[in-house]
Specification:
13 helices, five-stranded parallel sheet, about 350 residues, 15 strands, Oxidized Rhodanese, domain 1, alpha/beta, 2 domains
Amino acid sequence: MICGMCAVFLAVIVLSSENAHGGPECASLGASCDDSSGWSGAAKLDEIGDPNAGKVQTTGTKWPEKSRIVRWDQPASGFTKEDSASANNTTVTQETAAVKTAQNATTASAPVVKATAQRSENDKLMLLPIDDVSKSDILLDVSENSTSHIAGSAVIPYLQFDKEAGILKQTSEICKILGDNGLSSGDSIVIYGECLPCGGGPFLSAYVYGMLKSMGHEKVKILDGTAEDWAASGRATTNEAEVRPATVYTPKEISQFNATYDYVKSGQAQIVDARSMQEYASGTIPGSISIPYTSVLDGKKLKDDASLERIFAILNRDKPVVVFTSTGMKASVVWFALNMLGYDAKVYSYRDWVENQG
C-alpha cells in the first residue's frame, strides 16, 4: 500500500519525466519526440489499446517497427539497423553533396531552390509532371473554391460529386455532371486542385481520380503540382473556367475503390489509419497501423518513390491494404501513393466503422 504523500511524490516524478522528454506536448505536434534517453511519444501512442504492450521484447526498436513486430507478428522488414544505417549514410552523403554543389553554384546570400522529386516512367502513368502535359489533355480543377485556374481548364469543385462528405452521389448523377461540363469517358483528363481550408495538398485530386477510375475511365492522371506551380513555370492562369460543349459521359464499368465494413472486419487486409497521430491515439480500428496522410507529402506534392517506399516498408506488399481517415477523402492520397507503387489498396472511412459498431 502506497501512502498518500508517496503517491503524490510519484505523480510529480512521472509528470516531470513526461515534460522533460516532450511527452504530451511533443506528441500533440505529431512529432516522434525521440531523445537520447530512448523515450518516444509516438511509441507510447502506438502502444495504446495494445494488449501485448510490454510483453514482447522490442528493446532498441522504435515506432512503427514495433507495431509490425508486436501487433502483426511480422518481421521488421525494411527496418533493420543495417538498412537504417545505410539509408542514413546515403542521405547524409546526398545532402552533403547537394550543399557543396549549391555553395559552388551560388553565393551565400542566394536562395537555394528545392529540387523537384524525381519520378519514374511508371509514376508518370498516374502522376503527370507539368512539363509533360500535352494539348490533347483536358485539365480539370476540382478545388473547393479556386479563383485561379490553369488556362483552358474545366472547373468542377469536388463537392459537386458528393451527396455528403466522403459519400459520392449515384453514378448516373456523376455522369451528368461530367457530361454537362463537356467531359466524356474517352478524354485524357489531368486533375489538379486543393482544399485550402483542409490544409491543401493533392488529396482532392486523388479522391476524384479514384472516382473516375471506379467508372472505368482509362486516361486519367493527377497533375504533379498546383496552379501556382504552373504559373511559376511561366504558363498562363486565369480566373475564368473553360466552357466546353455538353456531351454524354458513359461509364465503361463500375467498380469500387472503397472498402466495405465486412471486408475491413474480415481481416483480409492490412488496415492503415491515415488520420493524425492524435486521432489514432483517441480510438482506431483494431489492428490498424498509423501512417498519417501528411507523411506521404512533401509540401503540397507526393514525396519521391524512395521516401514512399521507406514509409510503406512496414506493410506487406503481397497483402491487400485498406487505408482510412474520418470520411476517407484524405485517405485517398495515401491510397493513390500505394497504388502508384504497386500495392493493392482500397479506401475506407472511420465514420462507417463507428456507425457499424451500433
